[in-house]
């Protein structure tokens, strides 16, 4: 009788151990499924951004759109160079972008306005644009043109207006006529000075330097973001965030 009880006891122990293994395997599978779902959600966001960013052919120097909406977005916010926001803001969000990048265009239209309205306008953060111009031969001249507009206090207007009228990547649309039209639409006052500046070594070298900076940080695509504030661990890399809310949370944590 005692042997029978012993066998039953060992059987119960074995079943308990098997149940634990099965539970662990299920938990692992659920975690894997959750990670896969998050990955697929991010992929879906990126696909949506690219699709939305490619709906308009753009690139028409004689038919710029979005001037009023860009002016409304930046109105009343101080800017210096390619930094938008109060210079004393404790948190700095940095975007590394390429003006020819369709995903950058989508971020400028669908992500950054919320951040600018909720975090930059109230002085909680400032946002800086730095060129990571690698998509094609017209990327660097376009980036230098934005910097030249920034020298006259219209850098963010130039940036946002360019994106709203962005043409098909590497189609040749970003020529002198298009760049000049964007400068005029962005409110650059001295076009002659802007023309000299955008071709100067000062700004063409800066485009190269910030691109190298992006690579040193480990960025391989655009747009890529970093953030720094009193509560951050130095410069923290955000990569390509999945939502404006994610960036706002990073700003709050860094400040």
Can you characterise this structure?
- Strands 1-2-4-3-5-6 form a 6-stranded mixed beta sheet.
- It is 57% helix and 11% strand.
- Strand 5 (224-228) and strand 6 form a beta hairpin.
- It has helices spanning 2-53, 67-74, 102-110, 112-120, 139-150, 155-164, 176-185, 191-198, 201-216, 244-254, and strands at 79-80, 83-84, 91-97, 125-131, 224-228, 236-239.
- With 255 residues, it is of the alpha+beta class.
- It is built from 10 helices and 6 strands, in the order H-H-E-E-E-H-H-E-H-H-H-H-H-E-E-H.
Topology of helices and strands:
Elements: H1 2-53, H2 67-74, E1 79-80, E2 83-84, E3 91-97, H3 102-110, H4 112-120, E4 125-131, H5 139-150, H6 155-164, H7 176-185, H8 191-198, H9 201-216, E5 224-228, E6 236-239, H10 244-254
Helix pairs in contact: 1-3, 2-6, 4-10, 5-6, 5-8, 5-9, 6-7
Q: What percent strand?
A: 5-15%
Report the average pLDDT across residues.
87
Predict the CATH topology of the largest domain: Glutaredoxin
- Kindly give the count of domains: 2
> What's the alpha carbon Rg, rounded to whole Å?
25 Å
Report the sheet with the most strands, covering strand number, pairing sense and barrel closure.
6 strands, mixed
CATH superfamily of the largest domain: Glutaredoxin
Distance between the termini: 72 Å
Tally of helical segments: 10
CATH class of the largest domain: Alpha Beta
How is the largest sheet built, in terms of strand order? Answer: 1-2-4-3-5-6
Backbone shape: elongated
């Amino acid at each position: 009788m005692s042997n029978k009880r012993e066998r039953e006891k060992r059987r119960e122990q074995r079943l308990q151990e098997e149940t634990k293994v099965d539970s662990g395997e299920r938990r692992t599978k659920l975690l894997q499924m959750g990670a896969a779902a998050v990955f697929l959600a991010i992929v879906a966001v990126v696909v949506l951004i690219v699709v939305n960013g490619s709906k308009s052919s753009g690139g028409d120097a004689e038919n710029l759109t979005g001037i009023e909406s860009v002016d409304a977005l930046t109105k009343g916010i101080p800017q210096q160079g390619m930094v938008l926001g109060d210079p004393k803001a404790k948190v700095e969000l940095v975007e590394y972008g390429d003006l020819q990048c369709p995903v950058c265009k989508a971020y400028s239209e669908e992500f950054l306005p919320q951040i600018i309205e909720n975090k930059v306008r109230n002085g909680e953060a400032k946002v800086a644009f730095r060129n990571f111009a690698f998509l094609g031969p017209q990327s660097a001249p376009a980036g230098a043109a934005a910097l030249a507009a920034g020298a006259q206090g219209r850098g963010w207007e130039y940036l946002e207006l360019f994106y709203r009228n962005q043409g098909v990547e590497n189609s040749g649309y970003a020529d002198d006529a298009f760049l000049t039209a964007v400068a005029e639409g962005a409110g650059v006052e001295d076009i002659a000075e802007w023309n000299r500046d955008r071709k100067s070594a000062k700004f063409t070298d800066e485009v190269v330097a910030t691109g190298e900076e992006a690579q040193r940080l480990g960025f391989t695509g655009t747009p890529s973001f970093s953030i720094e504030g009193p509560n951050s661990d130095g410069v923290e890399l955000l990569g390509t965030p999945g939502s404006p809310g994610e960036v706002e949370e990073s700003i709050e944590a860094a400040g």
